[in-house]
Amino acid sequence: MQYCTIGEASATFNIPESTIRYYEKKGLLPLIERDEAGRRLFSEDQLALLGTVLCLKNTHMPISAIKQYIDWVVEGDSTIELRLEMMKKHKQAVLDEISLMTESLSGIDEKITRYTNRIK
Fold first, then answer.
1. Residue-wise over 47-67: b if at least 16 C-beta within 10 A, else e?
2. How far apart are CA 86 and CA 90, in angstroms?
3. I need a surface site. Which of 23, 36, 72, 91 has the fewest CB within 10 A?
């Protein structure tokens, strides 16, 4: 199995190493292996899990909810229905936020048009 360092993981996802350390401290990256010097080693599975954490964080899921999701992942297949329900609810929350942002963007566009016309 191939592993990468925290620096390589950081570069892969274009995030600071400190963010990865924070996520690990919060329990979002369980089971990270370490080398004999104590440096974190990321397997393909750990990188995939980090990608999932970032996806959920980027869509404004709270850390506490991400932690619950990760705990369920670690528990295994017996939690698939719980994870599915969580993802369905989160998807709806994301869609609601997109809708609100789209509405708000229209208001910003109106202001831009108004100010552009006044300048002319």
1. bebbeebbebbeeebeeeebb
2. 6
3. 36
